[in-house]
Amino acid sequence: MGVERGKLIADRYELTGRLGRGGMGEVWAARDRVLHREVALKLLDLDGIAHADLPRRFEREAVAAAQIVHPNVAALYDRGIHDDVLFLVMEKVDGQTLTARLRAESPFPLTRALAVASGVCAALEAAHRAQVIHYDIKPHNVILTGDGLVKVIDFGIAGFVQAAFTVARSSQLAPAGTPEFGAPEQFRTERGDERSDLYALGGMLFAMLAGRPPFTGHNSIAVVRRKLDEEAPPLDAFRSGLPPEVTTLVAELLARDPDRRPQSARLVQQRLQALLASCAVADAPTAAVPPTPPTRPLDDVTRRVPRPPSPGSWNRASTDETPFTPDALLPRRFTNDLGIEFARIAADTRPSREAGPSDLVRELARRDCTEVVAGVYAEQPGSHATPEHPVHISVQVFAFPDVATAQDAHGYLGDGGGAWHLTIWGASAEGGLTPGPDKVRRSRRWKQTWRKHRYLAVALAYRADLTNDGSITPWLAAAARRAATSTGPRNHHGA
């Protein structure tokens, strides 16, 4: 491919170090000289592959993948062609691949395996909503960051690579999907659909719990042949003592017939969240889970001391005791991925009963969340900030007793959860918080959620001008994403 450290791609991206090499190209760390940030650059070397439709297909897949904006998905920033090599510019994620983590510790504890699977499933749900199928979900394409976040990489890219091959030829089975984790239909003449990604998710959950993938063989062809001819082995044959709900879910995900699998990532996520919640209850000390009175008045809810993490907790920072105040959890200002600066114009700590309607308040109370830190940010002068139509962001941070409860709440409140309506805060003339005007809900807006230890942040960016100008959407998405990920304990600088 003729690339080396220091090479400039598209007069913009300076290669700083090779991160890995695959069958069709390389991944490099690079420096974006325009936006002054670190990125990952994937170079796809298609030399010798005769397919006149590849550039158009590459463009389509990249544009589709760029529509996915989710904390569990590594963002796709740019794409292009340089010296007849296709390249994609992606978010650089620091952490370990799930492959490396499994190599170091396998099998996983049940709670950790379910939490990773839930993160991957949330990414799949967001991608499938954007009409993007991954086609190559496997441990190597999942990164676990240092702060416990699950990131799925290569969305859209695997689908593009697979479409470049005729999967019926045995010599090209590997690009159609990884044999150990790809769905059986991907190795026939059909391409598969969303349920193919769910099959791969089942294979990963099996591997995390059993210490090995469901199918093995002396070579890739043997593994694929077994997948086409046999049903997956039962998980409890390799690990006993698992809840039957877990083994049943894995068996359904690994069904050879796609019609027998769960039909959407949303349905799978609901089951994973229920399993995580039941594990948290089972692991918690008896004294730490007092029965909740069925009709406890919300006004009588008092703040509780956070419980210690359960013995099976995989995030030992779950008892983070950062003071629950705006200055400890909310930044005073931040800059988003597009270089636009936002400044905080109002902030306060409010009782959770002001966070939204009664059903939301009940769920917060059930999870021992009694207060919310709220802040409002205004875009500083920039491309889309005008005196008539400024961009604002309403940020709310919820504190839960421990990381398991926060994870459960993220399933309900977050991007993969049920429908809900938070209070959208604005700034009053006196500089305090006030509920935003009704027209905000009818404006262009974008929501992003983020969890850091036991704190769950929700950011909603909006421009309340009631126009149909869709060009603002990428700006709102970038603003909401950075607002959410900028909150949390990192802003506490206590003695």
From TrEMBL:
<feature type="compositionally biased region" description="Polar residues">
    <location>
        <begin position="312"/>
        <end position="322"/>
    </location>
</feature>
<keyword id="KW-0067">ATP-binding</keyword>
<feature type="binding site">
    <location>
        <position position="42"/>
    </location>
    <ligand>
        <name>ATP</name>
    </ligand>
</feature>
<dbReference type="InterPro" id="IPR000719">
    <property type="entry name" value="Prot_kinase_dom"/>
</dbReference>
<dbReference type="GO" id="GO:0004674">
    <property type="term" value="F:protein serine/threonine kinase activity"/>
</dbReference>
<dbReference type="Pfam" id="PF00069">
    <property type="entry name" value="Pkinase"/>
</dbReference>
<feature type="region of interest" description="Disordered">
    <location>
        <begin position="286"/>
        <end position="330"/>
    </location>
</feature>
<dbReference type="InterPro" id="IPR008271">
    <property type="entry name" value="Ser/Thr_kinase_AS"/>
</dbReference>
<feature type="domain" description="Protein kinase">
    <location>
        <begin position="13"/>
        <end position="276"/>
    </location>
</feature>
<protein>
    <recommendedName>
        <fullName>non-specific serine/threonine protein kinase</fullName>
        <ecNumber>2.7.11.1</ecNumber>
    </recommendedName>
</protein>
<keyword id="KW-0808">Transferase</keyword>
<keyword id="KW-0723">Serine/threonine-protein kinase</keyword>
<dbReference type="InterPro" id="IPR017441">
    <property type="entry name" value="Protein_kinase_ATP_BS"/>
</dbReference>
<keyword id="KW-0418">Kinase</keyword>
<dbReference type="InterPro" id="IPR011009">
    <property type="entry name" value="Kinase-like_dom_sf"/>
</dbReference>
<keyword id="KW-0547">Nucleotide-binding</keyword>
